[in-house]
Amino acid sequence: MRRAKAVPVLWKRCAGLLCCWAAAAAGAAPASSPPQLFTAPAAGSYALQSIQPAPNGRVLDSAGGAADFARFSKGRVTLLSFIYTYCSDPLGCPLAYAVMHDLRQRLLAKPALARRVRFVSLSFDPVNDTPEAMRRYAGRLADVGNTLQWHFLTTQSVQHLKPLVDGLGQSVQVQLDSRGRPGRLFSHMLKVFLLDARGEVREIYSTAFLQPDVMFNDIETLLMEQDRAGRKRLAAARRWQTKQ
Questions:
Q1: Predicted confidence (pLDDT) per residue in 106-150, tens digit
Q2: pLDDT tens sequence across 37-73
Q3: CA 133 to chain CA centroid, nearest Å
Q4: Are 121 and 93 in contact (CB under 8 A)?
Q5: In degrees to the nearest 10, what's the CA dihedral of 204, 209, 215, 221?
Q6: Per residue, what are the HEC states of the chain?
Q7: Which of 8, 101, 107, 120 has the fewest other C-beta atoms within 10 Å?
Q8: How far is CA 234 from CA 50, 147, 196, 241, in A?
Q9: Cβ distance 52 to 201 under 8 Å?
């Protein structure tokens, strides 16, 4: 059974989250994460159902290199958010950044876990959020030597981005520039996606459930599930060898 959701919590720290956005733009740590007023279920005490496979498409990393999105959605447990580098909605990108930064610190305290997890921030606005802009926004968070890899991605155009957004069920509108050309995708609905190592979406967090304790336990739950599956495969391989 999929674990039951906790009671939504209303946050009243908009001013503090605005500061998080300013810190994000500078590559600094946010001031704080939203408060949590309930106890998250223990990792491994529940199962997360498979919701849908992550879509594929072409993306650009912060160095400008093109790659299949599958490179960033498979192989590790992945936390994915959509962002604008210039977003100032306190319950939008700054909130997601604050929570992901909190999770990053928790994971780095357990390096063995951190090495099995990646974060991905993908821009809604390929026109303004160029690879260079994403690189400036990321700062040291995107260093390749970091224990926990955090990738800041964009796309070549709205046409390249929209299949990824549509495939994840992220409702958006296309905004046109002054010449009537597609400029960016716009969304008022914050969603953060948790993917397993096979690239399957296992949880979708809206604003009310973007809680670090819950998300950390969900990540651990997927890693525990992955370890169990690995042990089963190893046991099956050994049984097959003994029969030969």
A1: 999 999 999 999 999 999 889 899 999 999 999 999 999 999 999
A2: 778 899 999 999 999 999 999 999 999 999 999 999 9
A3: 19
A4: no
A5: -70
A6: CECCCCCCCCCCCHHHHHHHHHHHHCCCCCCCCCCCCCCCCCCCCCECCCCEECCCCEEECCCCCEEECHHHHCCCEEEEEEECCCCCCCCCHHHHHHHHHHHHHHHHCCHHHHCCEEEEEEECCCCCCCHHHHHHHHHHHHCCCCCCEEEEEECCCHHHHHHHHHHCCCCCEEEECCCCCEEEEECCCCCEEEECCCCEEEEEECHHHCCHHHHHHHHHHHHHHHHHHHHHHHHHHHHHHHHC
A7: 8
A8: 23, 27, 20, 11
A9: yes
Token representation of residue 108: 């780095």
- Start-to-end CA distance of the chain, whole Å, equals 38
Query: What is the identity of the amino acid at 216?
Result: F
4: left (phi over 0), alpha (psi -120 to 50) or beta: beta
Tokens of 21: 């956005």
Token pair of 22, please? 């300013």
Report how far Cα 242 is from the mean position of its chain's Cα atoms. Answer: 42
Torsion of CA 167, 152, 128, 130, to 10 degrees: -110
Q: What tokens were used for 176?
A: 């046109």
Q: Is residue 26 scored above 80 in pLDDT? A: no
> Hunting for tokens 């599930």 — which residue is that?
225
